[in-house]
């Protein structure tokens, strides 16, 4: 028992002597300092390269606007965001590999293990694979792009970012909704085609319909000249319906994508002002008080 204790003490003394010799050796600290310095340089250079690549990508896509080969701006913005994301992830992955190399890790087993791990993840994380594949087809088929106003899974907003895994949209009240691409089952895009502004105009039954139609035609002709979002001559469809107190007439105007709400508001304001100036009555509920005792 005493011999075993003495042997352990000699082993600890030897280990302590080796550790002290290693830590007090100037070459050790020079080597460690060089490794730390190289890792810091890799981190700094990777961030600089990411910034330079993103600036170059943004510049290239800005120059694309004036080139002879014209591409829709919505697609240009989408591709710009996607290329920036891929470049950033690729540079950071390379920086991680270089850091591991400085720490003495053999990269060949790491790369082989990464391939095996990627295959395992592919089987285990099927939702992630579905998100990536769906994101690829969203971009390839140009279903929607950055800046489009869309409804995704009953959520409406402006597309802020399209990645291979997620899509971000911002609603008009400021909320940001994030959708995994694999969960996107229904998309309505309001920015692809011209939209139609529909305005229903109510007039009293006592009004002369011929006069009302003549005034409305003057208004929509004026609106075509004054409202830049209207792309075709507005149409007066005539009497659309009969209400309890009013005759409803319908006006339509083809306008630029996703501008129909603003055009509708401008048309209503123009119609109201012109009806007031021409003495055309827009019906509204009235209360008539009958004094007590009078028939």
Automatic annotation (TrEMBL):
GO cellular component labels: plasma membrane
Membrane topology reported for the UniProt record: Multi-pass membrane protein
Localization: Cell membrane
Mechanosensitive ion channel transmembrane helices 2/3 domain segment(s): 85-126
Keywords attached to this entry: Cell membrane, Membrane, Transmembrane, Transmembrane helix
GO molecular-function term, one example from the UniProt record: mechanosensitive monoatomic ion channel activity
Entry annotated with the keyword Membrane: yes
SUPFAM superfamilies assigned to the protein according to its UniProt record, in alphabetical order: Mechanosensitive channel protein MscS (YggB), C-terminal domain, Mechanosensitive channel protein MscS (YggB), transmembrane region, Sm-like ribonucleoproteins
InterPro entries xref list: LSM_dom_sf (IPR010920), MS_channel_1st (IPR049142), MS_channel_C (IPR049278), MscS_beta-dom_sf (IPR023408), MscS_channel_2nd (IPR006685), MscS_channel_C_sf (IPR011066), MscS_channel_TM-2 (IPR011014), YbiO_bact (IPR045276)
Domain Mechanosensitive ion channel MscS C-terminal: start-end pairs: 198-282
Domain Mechanosensitive ion channel MscS, first and last residues per copy: 128-191
Stated role: May play a role in resistance to osmotic downshock.
Entry protein name: Mechanosensitive ion channel protein MscS
Annotated source species: Brevibacillus aydinogluensis
Designated gene of the protein: mscS
């Amino acid at each position: 028992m005493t011999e075993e204790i003495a042997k352990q003490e000699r082993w600890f003394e030897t280990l302590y002597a080796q550790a002290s010799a290693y830590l007090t050796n100037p070459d050790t600290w020079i080597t460690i300092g060089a490794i730390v310095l190289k890792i810091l340089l890799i981190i700094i250079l990777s961030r600089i390269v990411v910034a330079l690549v993103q600036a170059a990508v943004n510049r290239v896509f800005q120059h694309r606007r004036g080139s002879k080969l014209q591409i829709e701006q919505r697609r240009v913005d989408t591709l710009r965001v996607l290329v920036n994301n891929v470049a950033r992830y690729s540079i950071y992955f390379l920086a991680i590999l270089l850091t591991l190399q400085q720490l003495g890790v053999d990269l060949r087993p790491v790369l082989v293990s990464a391939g095996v791990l990627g295959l395992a993840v592919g089987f285990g994380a099927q939702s992630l694979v579905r998100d990536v594949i769906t994101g690829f087809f969203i971009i390839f088929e140009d279903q929607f792009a950055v800046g489009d106003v869309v409804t995704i899974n009953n959520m409406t907003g402006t597309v802020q970012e399209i990645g291979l895994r997620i899509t971000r949209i911002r609603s008009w009240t400021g909320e940001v909704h994030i959708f995994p691409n694999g969960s996107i089952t229904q998309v309505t895009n309001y920015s692809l085609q011209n939209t139609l502004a529909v305005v229903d105009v109510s007039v009293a039954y006592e009004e002369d319909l011929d006069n009302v139609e003549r005034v409305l035609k003057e208004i929509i002709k004026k609106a075509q000249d004054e409202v830049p979002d209207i792309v075709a001559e507005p149409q007066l469809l005539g009497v659309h319906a009969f209400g309890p107190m009013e005759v409803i007439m319908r006006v339509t105007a083809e306008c630029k994508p996703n501008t129909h709400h603003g055009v509708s508001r401008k048309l209503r304001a123009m119609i109201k002002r012109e009806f007031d100036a021409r003495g055309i009555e827009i019906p509204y509920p009235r209360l008539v008080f009958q004094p007590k005792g009078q028939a």
